[in-house]
Every structure is written in C-alpha cells, then in structure tokens.
Automatic annotation (TrEMBL):
This is Glutamate dehydrogenase. The lineage of its organism: Bacteria, Pseudomonadati, Pseudomonadota, Gammaproteobacteria, Moraxellales. NAD(+) binds at residues 196, 227. Substrate binds at residues 76, 100, 355. One of its GO terms (molecular function) is glutamate dehydrogenase (NADP+) activity. It catalyses: L-glutamate + NADP(+) + H2O = 2-oxoglutarate + NH4(+) + NADPH + H(+). The active site is at residue 112. InterPro entries: Aminoacid_DH-like_N_sf, Glu/Leu/Phe/Val/Trp_DH, Glu/Leu/Phe/Val/Trp_DH_C, Glu/Leu/Phe/Val/Trp_DH_dimer, Glu/Leu/Phe/Val_DH_AS, Glu_DH, NAD(P)-bd_dom_sf, NAD_bind_Glu_DH. One of its GO terms (biological process) is L-glutamate catabolic process. CDD domains: NAD_bind_1_Glu_DH (cd01076).
C-alpha cells in the first residue's frame, strides 16, 4: 500500500481491523490474491454539513459515508452522531459491517456513516436540519439497492424517519427501503429496536451452553445501557442471571446480589443515566473491570478493553455487544487467560439481521409478526454461532478468527466469481 495513505494509519479502529485481517490471512491462502480487497474501502465520501442554528448562526459539521465492500449486495450499516467520529473510525465500522453481514450470510456488503457532532447539544429542530442536510449530501450513494443506513450511537428511529422522508422527497415517491430501524408505521420492523440486545443474549446462551456455565444465578456485568445493553440486561435478568454491575456515561452502579433490571429502564428514562439507582452503590468507573462476574458485556463504544483491563477481567465469557471494544493485544491476553470471546461481528449482528428482515418486508410490502421475527432471528443467530464454533474447533483458532474465516471466504469468493472489471 502507498505510504502516507489514510489506509495505513498505525492506530485507531481501522488499524485494529487491519490486524484482524492479517490474522485471518493465513487461513485464506486459496484466495490470497483477493485479500487486499478487504484492506481498503470501495468508496469513502466526506461531506460538509452546514446548518442554520436556532439562533440564526451557521455551523458546519463534518459527515462521512463509507462503503467498504459491495461484493455480496448493497451496503448496510448504521449512522453515528458522536463528537469522536472521524474517517478512520467510520472506515473500520464499515469494514466490520462487511464481515458481520457475511458471517450471518445476509445478502449485503458493509457500509457506515457518521457526523462529528454531540447530538445532545442540538435542539430537536437543529438535529432534524442536520439529518436532512447530511442525507441530501450522501443521497447520491444511498438507496434500497445501493446502500441502506440504520441507527447507531447517537441516532434513533426518529432520525431514520427524517432520512427516509428526505430521500423520498428527492426521488418523488416514498422509498421505505432506503433505511432500516424506522418507526413501525413508516415501514419499520417489529422487534428491530430490541434485536441487537436479543442477539447478544442468544450468543450468551449458546456460549454458556458450550463452556458449561449455568445461566441461572450467573453474574453479568454490562458496560453501556442504551439500545443494546439495556435489552441484553433485561433478557439475562429474565433468565434469572444476576446483573451485578452496569456502567454508562453517568458512572457505574453495582450490587453483588443483582440489580433490579425490571425497574432500571424507567429510572434511566427519568434521570438520563444509571447512576443513583435504588439498591446499588456507585463504584469508580475503572473498578468496573475488576468486578466479579461470569459474563462481561461491553455494549458502549469501541476500544474499551485494553491490555491493562484484559489482565483484570474475571468473567469467563465476553460478549462483544459494542463494535470493536477489544484491542488486539487485549484479545491475546484474554485468550491466553482461557476466556471465551464472542466477537462483535457475530455477537451484535442481531440488529443487522432484523434490518435485513425490515428491508425484505419493505420491498415486499408484507409485514411479519414480532413472534415470527424473533423466531427467524433466533434461528439465524444460533446457526451462525454453530458455524463459527465449528470453524474454530476445526482450525484450532479463536471465535474471532473463525468468524473472519467464514466471512472472508464468502466475501472473497464473491469477489473472485465476479472477477475484476475490466478483466
Ligand atoms: P446507545 O447510544 O443507545 O447507548 C450507548 C450507551 O453507552 C449509553 O448507555 C451510554 O451512556 C453509554 N456510554 C457512552 N459513552 C460511555 C463511556 N465513555 N463509558 C461508559 N458508557 C458509555 O448505543 P447502542 O445503539 O446501544 O450501541 C452501543 C454499541 O453497540 C455501539 O458500539 C454500537 O456500534 C454497537 N451496535 C449497536 C447496534 C444497534 O442496533 N443499536 C447494532 C450493532 C452494534
């Protein structure tokens, strides 16, 4: 690769992703001439997003949409609103979407978008203007057959509704299939909001079964109590596991006898975070990594499990609800310490799977019941866990490498069979 290229940065999430590809390369000897396809995004768009603020001033925000790979179908991936968003991060997140879609064998490539903004500092009207302008700037590369955004950190179903409306206005008719994670009455799917957390839970059940951990009475620690963390917490709680620690941006709460998750959602909605919840003590954020737990679920942001933290983690199963929460050197330490890590590319794939169901429902204009959706989701997740586990056993490798073997094999075979244009 060229020196000084943005593709070669020696740190950040993209660097983590490249290291993961290097680790899987020896297993893909038969496709090695195509491996570089995975080490560069197909298309990366940087856009200026100017908006008029409520006080009449004009502010400019930086927006991105990266389509990492489209060999197996249209791009698929969320849109993030966060002050740390940059090209490096969006490239990595888009690449992980390529891998994730392929592990689940969904007919999608990988993409991701984002705007460098703290959405909590904008009014609802400013957020809407930002979303509509960003949509119009990336509008020529998205579409139901091109690239289908979805929610991620800092965005939600209302933002998806504005994207759908803005895109539809530009086309002159209603295009429900341009985004997923929409409100249900705009063509959204039942079960979508809870899907990622549900997928994390299913991976937990499957992993626990295989390592001989009884879920009932087991201890669970969760970082992040948003979309993903809260649903995973509820399902573990419902299965009579004890959620002993929860951390969010407001701090970390702990109760060794288990936190009452049935009441926590309401508290978080009212007070904006978990801190101060009844019958819990606040512990220092760094202590979260020392908590005595059987299952650890990072479900906030990437780059959370450093080598230092990996040496302290007590849990035997780590379920990566977040994207890219574990640094490669931490990965090695955890594996050395005998931990089972269910990697993000399968563990948090419940969201993209139900997004796929939403897209199919929108295209066919025929909608399924929540029970049907959950049933189909459970089936696909269990099948993918089976395939990943068996690949790991066969190749004597980690679940992460196994997931990458399966995914990269599918992506690069598609690339090979399509050929390189113009030949
Ligand atoms: P969210 O915005 O709903 O929730 C994020 C949570 O993380 C919040 O509880 C927030 O308080 C917490 N948080 C933020 N900064 C923190 C910090 N510094 N320390 C501790 N906690 C912090 O986001 P989400 O949709 O739940 O996504 C969480 C993760 O899961 C992200 O990595 C995202 O990419 C990934 N993910 C989400 C989906 C989805 O469907 N929502 C799908 C796949 C992967």
């Amino acid at each position: 690769m060229d020196k000084l290229s943005y593709l070669n940065e020696s740190s950040g999430a993209w660097h983590t992703y490249l290291k993961q590809i290097d680790r899987v390369a020896p297993y893909l000897e038969h496709l090695k001439e195509y491996i570089d396809t995975l080490k560069r995004p197909k298309r990366a768009l940087i856009v200026d997003v100017p908006i008029v603020m409520d006080d009449g001033s004009i502010r400019h925000f930086e927006g991105f949409r990266v389509q990492h790979n489209l060999s197996r179908g249209p791009g698929k991936g969320g849109i993030r609103y966060h002050p740390d968003v940059d090209l490096n991060e969006v490239m990595a997140l888009s690449a992980w979407m390529t891998i994730k879609s392929a592990v689940l064998n969904l007919p999608f490539g990988g993409a991701k978008g984002g705007v460098r903004v703290d959405p909590s500092t904008l009014s609802a009207r400013e957020l809407e203007r930002l979303t509509r302008r960003y949509t119009s700037e990336i509008g020529h590369i998205i579409g139901p057959q091109k690239d289908i955004p979805a929610p991620d950190v800092g965005t939600n179903q209302h933002v998806m509704g504005w994207i759908m409306d803005t895109y539809s206005s530009s086309q002159g008719y209603t295009v429900t299939g341009v985004v997923t994670g929409k409100p249900v009455h705009l063509g959204g799917s039942l079960g979508r909001i809870k899907a990622t957390g549900r997928g994390v839970y299913i991976c937990g059940v499957e992993a626990a079964k295989r390592v001989g951990l009884e879920l009932k009475g087991s201890k669970v620690a969760i970082q992040g109590y948003g979309n993903v963390g809260s649903e995973a917490a509820f399902l573990f709680y419902d299965a009579q596991a004890m959620v002993v620690a929860v951390q969010d941006h407001t701090g970390t709460i702990y109760n060794r006898e288990g936190i009452d998750i049935s009441k926590l959602n309401e508290y978080v909605q009212q007070f904006g975070g978990v801190c101060g919840f009844e019958n819990t003590e606040n512990i220092a954020n760094e202590e979260f990594w020392d908590v005595d737990a059987d299952i650890l679920i990072p479900a906030a942001l990437e780059g959370q499990i450093t080598a230092h933290r990996a040496n302290r983690i007590k849990a035997s199963i780590i379920l990566e609800g977040a994207n890219g929460p574990t640094y490669p050197e931490a990965d090695d330490i955890l594996i050395e310490r005998g931990k089972t890590i269910v990697p993000d590319v399968i563990c948090n794939a419940g969201g993209v799977t139900v997004s796929y169901f939403e897209w199919v429902q929108d295209i066919s204009s025929f909608f399924w019941s929540e029970a049907e959706i959950n049933h189909k989701l459970d089936d696909l997740m269990v099948k993918a866990m089976d395939e990943v586990w068996n690949t790991a056993t066969k190749n004597h490798c980690t679940l992460r490498t196994a997931a990458y073997i399966l995914a990269c094999e599918r992506i690069l075979t598609a690339r090979k069979e399509r050929g390189i244009f113009p030949g």
